[in-house]
């Protein structure tokens, strides 16, 4: 017969096993790296390039529209793999979404996307300062390379990760992919003592590059805003101060789905690549919901926050998204400077972009010091409409600067 005392002892043993498996402190950003394809184009030149290579000069009104959107985009340049002339010379079918081309696109991206991710991850690992074989978990997020075995396997082999690394792929989360991946990394790091999680996000617009069509407004907006890039972050708890440099603690993370908005941002593979839709009300929907996400998040950790005292890592989905957020939260002009700079220099690289913003914030804190800064908010938005919120706190490695 099992006595209550024996049950009590067993419970204590299980409790102790669970306690020992978990980290003591919060998940912390320990390294960041970013990378882009070699080819870059100024936003001013893009409409001429795009209409020339897609043989669309017979649609001048659409070209004018693209020019208008480019001018208002807040973007100065973007990096894109597809700008490499050889790609379109070898695959003229990529310029027409009505021609079958998904196989050829996936063939290219299933190699090129993990390779771009490896470039960013190599920098993040060097920044972290420990060997790649110390990585215990890999989270790879992309919408651009859907295939199995998927890019995480290739990425792990490019980086020389250990065969027992625990891999997860996030696919088609679009612009909130980076936020989602970081939240999962937080859960893994806090629930597995000693875990070191590599988050790698990489996006290539090649999967959705094609010529303009009458009435297809989304094509214009996508080709005006989206760029290619990769961002990687090492996340772990209880840092070893002798070799690791804690940058940002991740104090709290949540996800909110805005009801009745599933039609607003969509992505779907088809025989000619990937179709997408970006509804016109997206900035306003985000603007109407962002404050509640922040209030709920800060209430959860019982911190009274003033929006203008925070540092901000907001996904720059488009210039207007940043304008609306700044207005509804009553933020001062410089608050979203890191997001605006990333938008200006790289465009919207979907889920990857928020890692670039985090990297830019870190650069600013290292250059100017952290005085007056303690709490910050990382926010990312995408299909759903889904809003990711992560509350950040400046960690000791940035304070030492
Ligand atoms: C820079 C914009 C596009 C324009 O600036 P504006 O201050 O609003 O200027 P206007 O009001 O004068 O609009 C300029 C033109 O843009 C058009 N426009 C204004 N939003 C729209 C609109 N959603 N649709 C299609 N025309 C529009 C607008 O109709 C107008 O056309 P036109 O009258 O012919 O000059 C601005 O509206 C803006 O930042 N919008 C936010 C874009 C946005 O929602 N981004 C978040 C979602 S992105 C996402 O989920 C990514 C998915 C993805 C998918 C595929 C990939 O490869 C990669 C990623």
Automatic annotation (TrEMBL):
Highest rank taxon of the organism: Eukaryota
Span of domain Chalcone/stilbene synthase C-terminal: 249-393
InterPro entries given in the database record: Chalcone/stilbene_synt_C, Chalcone/stilbene_synt_N, Polyketide_synthase_type-III
BP-aspect Gene Ontology terms: pollen wall assembly; polyketide biosynthetic process
Residue ranges annotated for the Chalcone/stilbene synthase N-terminal domain, each copy included: 15-239
One Pfam family per UniProt: Chal_sti_synt_N
Molecular function GO labels: acyltransferase activity, transferring groups other than amino-acyl groups
UniProt KW keywords: Acyltransferase, Transferase
Coiled coil: none
Family: Belongs to the thiolase-like superfamily. Chalcone/stilbene synthases family.
Protein name as it appears in the record: Chalcone synthase
Organism in which the protein naturally occurs: Zizania palustris (Northern wild rice)
Lineage of the species this protein comes from: Eukaryota, Viridiplantae, Streptophyta, Embryophyta, Tracheophyta
């Amino acid at each position: 017969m099992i006595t209550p005392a024996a049950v009590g002892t067993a419970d204590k043993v299980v409790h102790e096993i669970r306690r020992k498996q978990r980290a003591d402190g919060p998940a912390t950003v320990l390294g960041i790296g970013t990378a882009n394809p070699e080819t870059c184009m100024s936003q001013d030149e893009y409409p001429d390039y795009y209409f020339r290579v897609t043989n669309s000069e017979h649609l001048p009104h659409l070209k004018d529209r693209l020019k208008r959107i480019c001018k208002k985009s807040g973007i100065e340049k973007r990096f894109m793999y597809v700008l490499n002339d050889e790609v379109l010379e070898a695959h003229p079918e990529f310029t027409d979404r009505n021609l079958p081309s998904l196989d050829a696109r996936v063939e290219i991206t299933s190699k090129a996307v993990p390779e771009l991710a490896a470039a960013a991850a190599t920098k993040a690992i060097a920044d972290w300062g420990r060997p790649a074989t110390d990585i215990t978990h890999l989270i790879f997020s992309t919408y651009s390379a859907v295939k199995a075995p998927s890019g995480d396997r290739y990425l792990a082999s490019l980086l020389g990760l250990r065969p027992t690394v625990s891999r997860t792929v996030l696919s088609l989360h679009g612009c909130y992919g980076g936020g989602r991946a970081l939240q999962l990394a937080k859960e893994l790091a806090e629930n597995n003592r000693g875990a070191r999680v590599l988050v790698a996000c990489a996006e290539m617009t090649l999967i959705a590059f094609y010529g303009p069509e009458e009435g297809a407004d989304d094509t214009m907006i996508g080709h005006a805003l989206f760029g290619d890039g990769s961002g990687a972050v090492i996340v772990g708890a209880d840092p070893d101060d002798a070799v690791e440099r804690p940058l940002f603690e991740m104090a709290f993370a949540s996800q909110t789905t805005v009801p009745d908005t599933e039609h607003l941002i969509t992505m779907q593979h088809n025989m000619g690549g990937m179709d997408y839709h970006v509804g016109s009300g997206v900035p306003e929907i985000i603007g109407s919901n962002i404050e509640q996400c922040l209030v709920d998040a800060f209430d959860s950790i019982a911190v009274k926050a003033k929006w203008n005292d925070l540092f901000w890592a907001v996904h720059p989905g488009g210039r207007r998204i940043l304008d609306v957020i700044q207005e509804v939260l009553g933020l001062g002009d410089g608050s979203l400077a890191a997001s605006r700079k990333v938008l200006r220099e790289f465009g919207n690289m979907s889920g990857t972009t928020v890692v670039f913003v985090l990297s830019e914030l870190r650069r600013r804190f290292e250059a100017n010091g952290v005085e007056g800064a303690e709490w910050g908010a990382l926010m990312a938005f995408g299909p759903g409409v889904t809003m990711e919120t992560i509350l950040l706190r400046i960690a000791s490695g940035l304070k030492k600067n």
